[in-house]
Each structure stands twice: as structure tokens, then as C-alpha cells.
Amino acid sequence: MHKPAHTWSIAELAAEYDVTLRTIRFYEDRGLLAPERRGTVRVYHPRDRVRLGLILRGKRLGFSLDEIATIVDMYDAEPGEEGQLVYLLDQITTRRAALEQRRQDIDQTLQELADVEARCKADLEALRSRPVSH
Fold first, then answer.
1. Residue 3 falls in which region: left (phi positive, over 0), alpha (psi -120 to 50) or beta
2. Cβ atoms within 10 A of the Cβ of 44, count?
3. CA-to-CA distance for 97 and 28, rounded, in angstroms?
4. Given pLDDT bands bounded at 50, 70 and 90, which one contains residue 116?
5. In sequence order, what are the beta bridge partners of 41?
6. How far is the C-alpha of 56 from the C-alpha of 40, rounded, in Å?
7. Rg of the Cα trace of the chain?
């Protein structure tokens, strides 16, 4: 006797991942999710659930939807999981380099702000310590 695979409604997936129904429908419209249709009802299978998790993780990591689509679609096509992992590692390297550059830019900006702040405080102190002439 074969046990049927667990399925989810759109509302169940939205609640589980704390996203709106509109978000899930958007990913469906973009071709990232392909739930089974039973009349007007969407039925999500384990594959859809996993893909939604990957999509949301990719968004948190800063990947575009096109990049996410490439990554999740590679799992089902040639070169398969190995190609997916190689591509993902390349994307991680690129993303990390961009974030490190942004970190350096932020650090430099913070230092410049600290320098300007110190000069402003010194100038203000000098102005306040001048004798008042009448």
C-alpha cells in the first residue's frame, strides 16, 4: 500500500514561510513554482515546498529572481545537482566580493564621518571658548 505524498494549500505554504498569497502567486507567474491544479485550487507538492524555500533563501542572500530561477531549474536539468552547485558557488563568490566591497565603502564612509564630526566639534569648541567682545 503506497502512502500518498503530503501536499499543501497555498494558505498553508504562505503561513509556513510567512509570506503572502500574492508572493507565492508571483513566483508561480514567474515560473518558479508549478503547483498542481485541481479545478481552481492550487495543490503544492514537496517539490514546490522545497523550491519555495530555496527561492526565499536566495532572496535573503540577495540573488535576483533570474539567478534564483537558474539555480533551482538546474537541479531538474543537465548538468543537474553538480552544475547547480558549481553555479551557486560562483554566484556566492561574486556576491561575497560585492558585499566585502560594500563593507569597505561603509567603513570608509564611517571614518570620513568621524573625521568631519571631530573637526566640527573642535571648531564649535573653539567658537565657544573665544572671549565675547562688546
1. beta
2. 22
3. 31
4. very high
5. 38
6. 25
7. 26
* Per-residue pLDDT tens digits for 34-53: 999 999 899 999 989 989 99
DSSP string computed for 43-82: EB-HHHHHHHHHHHHHHHTT--HHHHHHHHHHTTSTTHHH
Choose among 6, 75, 68: nearest CA to 43.
6
DSSP states of the chain as a string?
Answer: -PPPPP-B-HHHHHHHHT--HHHHHHHHHTTS---EEETTEEEB-HHHHHHHHHHHHHHHTT--HHHHHHHHHHTTSTTHHHHHHHHHHHHHHHHHHHHHHHHHHHHHHHHHHHHHHHHHHHHHHHHHHSPPP-
Cβ atoms of 27 and 19 closer than 8 Å = no
Q: Which residues contact 21 (CB under 8 A, 6 or more apart)?
A: 10, 11, 14
Reading the block at residue 130, the C-alpha cell is 573665544
The predicted pLDDT at position 74 comes to: 75
Q: How many Å separate Cα 10 from the centre of its chain?
A: 21
